[in-house]
Give the backbone structure.
Amino acid sequence: MTPASKRVRVPDLVEMKKRGEKIVALTAYDFTMAQIFDRAGIDILLVGDSLGNVIMGCETTLPVTMEAMLHHTAAVSRAARRALVVADMPFLAAQITPELALRNAGRLVAEAGAAAVKIEGGRPVAEAVRKIVEAGIPVMGHLGLTPQAVHQLGGFRKQGRSPEEAAMLAEQARLLQEAGIFAVVLENVPAELASRITADLRVPTIGIGAGAGCDGQVLVCYDMLGLSQGAIPPFVKRYAELGAKMEEAAREYAAEVRRGEFPPLAKTEEA
C-alpha cells in the first residue's frame, strides 16, 4: 500500500503486518492538521484523548469528555480521505458497563464519523471490547502505560519492566486479541517485551516508546512537530520546530502592526 492508494481499512492493517509493512499513525485533533497528515500518507489518524494535554492544557487526560471527543473526531473525520480515523474512548466511557461502552462507541462512529475506537486497559474492558466488536465497530486496544490509569500506575513510568508485569501484559494482549481487537497500542514498555508481544499476536502492534519491533509507530503530533511546551518524552523525535517558527512569525506580525507597517497603505491612500 502506498500513500497515494485507496482508503485504509481495518483488514488492510492486518495484511500490512503479514507483509511486514510498517504502519504509520499520528494523533490529530482538528480539520486542518488532519488534512495535512492525510495528504502526507499517514495510515491512521488517532483522535487521542491526549487532546486534554495539548489542546485543553490539562495535566492528565482524565478531564476529557465524550462531548470533546465527538467534537474533535468529527473535525478529523471531515478531513480524512485515505487514513483510518480511530477515536479514543475517554475516561470511564468504556469501563462502567459494556452496554454504556457500546453506546459511547456507537456515538463516535455514527455522530462523529470515526471508523474505529480505541480503549485503554486489558481484562477489565475485555467484555466491553467483545460487545462493541460484535456490534460491528472495530476496536483498537491500548496496553502498557495507559494515561487514564495514571494515578493507579503512580505516574507516567515505563510498564512491564519486571517479569511479572511483562507476563501480565503479554497475557492481556492475547486476551484482547481473543475479544476481537484489530490492533493494539503498546505504550512505554521495554522494546524486548514489545517485540515478543508483536511476534505472539496475529493483530498489529502500534508502538509509542516501545522500540522498533512493533508493527507500526504512533506519536502525538504536537510533540513530533515541536509544538509541545515543557518536558518531552525521551522516545519522541522532533521532526520540526514549528512552535519556535510560529512564535517568530507572531512576533514579526506584532512588530509590523505596532510600527504601522501592516496592513500596507493602499496606493490610493498613499496618493
User: Anything to note?
Assistant: Residues 163-179 form the longest helix (17 residues). The chain has two domains: 10-240, 242-271.
